[in-house]
Write a sequence for this structure.
């Protein structure tokens, strides 16, 4: 599968605390070109933190993190030239127009204005956003904003793409396009680092799944490999099993009984 | 995006930025985007269909006018004589104070913006470039404001003292602005280092409030406390503590160059004025990465909150609100008032002001008539000025930083929309106005003697009536339903007659005192009017609400 033995992401014994709370407790990870990594885990276990550390947005960690051969703590930013990023919280300067925003991002990557403009315009057109290219982003719907973010993450032809819940709010047709795009990028040897809570999508598009729980990697391998290790069912089942969660039925029953105002707080 | 003249001016210093390790081209692009965004600040969301027109960038121009007006006070201090060290230290003291307030209250958000981080720093941009772009962004505005503020004094100085004076003044203003901005940023850095998340935001909030109160009150008192003529004639002997006061540094160069005074301390002050801003900038650029990392803390939610269920609020609601719905919104508004930072920032300074304002009058009276005169006088009527806070509170009730949450009003099956407004107004009465008034009343009883008690009651009833009047005039939106950015467009004008109205209340009170039993009759009349207005006034608002 691997197109090259050279890892593009190399993480050794990564630990990170916020105050007294230890979020990451020793992450080891090697990622190779041509992989689509599904990076999954329950809420608040440090998925976004890992991504942000790799992007150099969070510092003061211990351990060793290299992206495209560059130690991210060195303060050098050149490696980010070949990185694309769709953040989880859709922060955007939404008083700019689509054109202004995308050309700005392009220029931050040292792409010439006209080239960025052409690229952006064509990609917007393919996503059906041609007529809002010169409208302010504040007037976009959630899905349109998300598409814009995806375009902005691809405008610099990145080697590694970090996607944090990228498909939220996007309609089914465009989701199909984006999945194909990711597949195509993979074949060209690009790396995609994909975090999401939607297990069906992760199961389908990832060729490697990394499951993190309580600040540690608890499973790492292809979907088939995970299934092979005595685990069965869908990725969702595997996810529940590995995160030690199996009382969802009881919780749901109790939940509904509270909704209905029944005084059976003790459970069924 | 249009091209900005100020950026062309910056191009001159291209090489200097490069030397500091800053990617000038990128910085320029970031600045261009920022300036474009500023011009579009007015929200375009379809908040309501009413006649709010877009006013791009007009706000700054308007406030610049105010600064020019305020700046007239400098003229006498600048043209009075040629003891530059005194005069200019004083002038710079006031300017620095004012500019720090402006910086902290208006530009903290720019300095502490997290949005930039995700959007820009995930690209191949080093944090230094982004941070300096932020700095320059702020400096540009600060510079406009400072120029407006010192404008009148600057022109007067040019006429009186000539070109050289103006040149020194101009250069020092730039140095001073840089010093203030960098020192503020360093201060934030320090706070960020030791505190986290929510606590940090609170600290900054209180810091802003205290600073704003200090400046407002300080400005009022300054003229009264300072006897400038005497100061000019004192022989200056430098004391060690003066070396740590920046305004005195900035007085140095004037004394050195214009008066040819080459005493050691003058040379020292001059050196400090020039060197300190530069040193501060260098220290800051070194610390930028730490600043950026710690900035992330603003997003952290340290989950240490005490579970609180009912508490005092619950019972207060029962006392002051009749319907259940009203009680619900009373509690909701109470929580919002106590927690919404922007609300606090906009309202609390005016609270400080309205608490101190009556006493400024009283102090002036003591100055001319003596303390004994107060008892039995009618000076307690100045307590009507406490009401100044009311229009401000009522107006701000309509706004929120999270105004989009207001959709719940439309979804919830609220039968009586008035109860939303009524609950919120009552919440501000119980949580802000009443406690402050009780405090002031206690103080006044000490000052004026116990017999003013009845008058204090009447003043309070008048304020209750005043609240209903303000609500009717100012409050045409549901509580917490519009963004703060749309506030202050035109409502400021409505404030002036409302303040004059307080004077009318005082006058009516005064007249009542001249009639036998007038006080009691007046009180009964006020109570009856209150019963009527508290019922009726909000019904008028109902129409507005239902029309949406």
């Amino acid at each position: 599968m691997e197109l090259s033995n050279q890892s593009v992401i190399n993480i050794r014994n990564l630990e990170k605390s916020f105050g007294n709370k230890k979020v990451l407790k020793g992450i080891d990870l090697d990622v190779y070109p041509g992989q689509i990594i599904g990076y999954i885990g329950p809420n608040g276990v440090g998925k976004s933190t890992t991504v942000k550390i790799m992007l150099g947005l969070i510092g003061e960690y211990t351990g060793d993190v290299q992206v495209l051969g560059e130690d991210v703590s060195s303060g050098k930013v050149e490696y980010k030239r070949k990185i694309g990023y769709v953040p989880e919280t859709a922060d955007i300067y939404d008083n700019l127009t689509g054109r202004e925003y995308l050309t700005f991002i392009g220029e931050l990557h040292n792409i010439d204005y006209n080239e960025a403009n052409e690229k952006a315009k064509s990609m917007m057109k393919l996503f059906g956003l041609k007529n809002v290219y010169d409208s302010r982003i504040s007037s976009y719907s959630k899905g349109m904003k998300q598409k814009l973010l995806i375009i902005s993450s691809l405008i610099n032809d990145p080697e590694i793409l970090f996607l944090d819940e990228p498909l939220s709010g996007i309609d089914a047709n465009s989701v199909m396009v984006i999945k194909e795009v990711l597949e195509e990028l993979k074949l060209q040897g690009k790396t995609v680092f994909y975090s999401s809570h939607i297990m069906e999508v992760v199961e389908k598009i990832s060729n490697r799944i990394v499951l993190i729980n309580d600040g540690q990697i608890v499973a790492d391998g292809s979907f088939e490999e995970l299934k092979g290790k005595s685990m069965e069912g869908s990725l969702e089942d595997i996810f529940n099993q590995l995160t030690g969660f199996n009382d969802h039925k009881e919780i749901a029953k109790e939940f509904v009984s509270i909704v209905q105002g029944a005084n059976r707080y003790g459970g069924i | 995006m249009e091209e900005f003249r100020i950026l062309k001016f910056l191009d001159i210093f291209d090489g200097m930025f490069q030397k500091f390790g800053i990617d000038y081209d990128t910085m320029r692009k970031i600045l261009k985007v920022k300036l474009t965004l500023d011009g579009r600040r007015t929200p375009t969301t379809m908040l309501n269909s009413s006649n709010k027109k877009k006013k791009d960038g007009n706000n700054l121009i308007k406030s610049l006018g105010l600064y020019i007006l305020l700046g007239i006070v400098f003229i006498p201090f600048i043209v009075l004589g040629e003891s530059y060290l005194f005069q200019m230290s004083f002038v710079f003291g006031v300017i620095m104070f004012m500019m720090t307030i402006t910086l902290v209250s208006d530009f903290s958000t720019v300095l502490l913006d997290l949005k930039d981080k995700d959007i820009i720093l995930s690209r191949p941009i080093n944090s230094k470039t982004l941070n300096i772009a932020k700095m320059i962004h702020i400096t540009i505005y600060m510079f406009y404001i400072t120029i407006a503020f010192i404008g009148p004094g600057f022109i007067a100085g040019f006429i009186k003292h000539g070109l050289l004076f103006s040149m020194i003044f101009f250069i020092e203003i730039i140095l001073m602005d840089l010093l203030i901005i960098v020192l503020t940023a360093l201060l934030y850095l320090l706070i960020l280092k030791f505190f986290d998340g929510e606590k940090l935001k609170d600290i900054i909030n209180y810091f802003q409030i205290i600073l704003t109160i200090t400046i407002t009150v300080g400005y009022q008192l300054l003229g009264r406390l300072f006897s400038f003529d005497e100061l000019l004639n004192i022989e200056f002997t430098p004391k060690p503590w003066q070396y740590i006061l920046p305004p005195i540094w900035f007085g140095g160069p004037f004394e050195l160059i214009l008066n040819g005074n080459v005493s050691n301390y003058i040379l020292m002050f001059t050196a400090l004025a020039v060197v300190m801003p530069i040193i501060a900038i260098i220290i800051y650029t070194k610390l930028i990465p730490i600043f950026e990392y710690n900035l992330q803390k603003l997003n952290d939610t340290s989950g240490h909150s005490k579970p609180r269920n009912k508490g005092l609020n619950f019972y207060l609601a029962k006392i002051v609100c009749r319907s259940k719905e009203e009680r619900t919104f009373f509690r909701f508004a109470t929580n919002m008032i106590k927690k919404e930072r922007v609300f606090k920032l906009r309202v609390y300074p005016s609270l400080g002001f309205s608490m101190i304002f009556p006493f400024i009058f009283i102090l002036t009276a003591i100055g001319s008539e003596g303390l004994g005169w107060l008892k039995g006088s009618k000076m307690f009527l100045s307590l009507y000025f406490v009401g100044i806070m009311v229009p401000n509170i009522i107006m701000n009730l309509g706004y929120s930083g999270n105004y989009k949450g207001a959709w719940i009003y439309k979804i919830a099956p609220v039968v009586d929309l008035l109860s939303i407004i009524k609950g919120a107004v009552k919440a501000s009465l119980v949580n802000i106005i009443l406690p402050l008034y009780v405090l002031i009343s206690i103080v006044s009883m000490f000052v004026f003697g116990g017999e003013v008690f009845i008058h204090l009651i009447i003043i309070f009833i008048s304020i209750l009536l005043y609240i209903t009047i303000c609500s009717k005039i100012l409050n045409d939106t549901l509580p917490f339903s519009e963004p703060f950015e749309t506030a202050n467009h035109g409502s400021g004008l409505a404030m002036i007659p409302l303040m004059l109205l307080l004077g009318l209340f005082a006058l009516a009170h005064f007249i009542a005192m001249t009639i036998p039993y007038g006080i009691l009759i007046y009180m009964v009349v006020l109570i009856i009017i209150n019963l009527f207005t508290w019922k009726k006034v909000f019904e008028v608002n109902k129409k507005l609400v239902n029309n949406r």
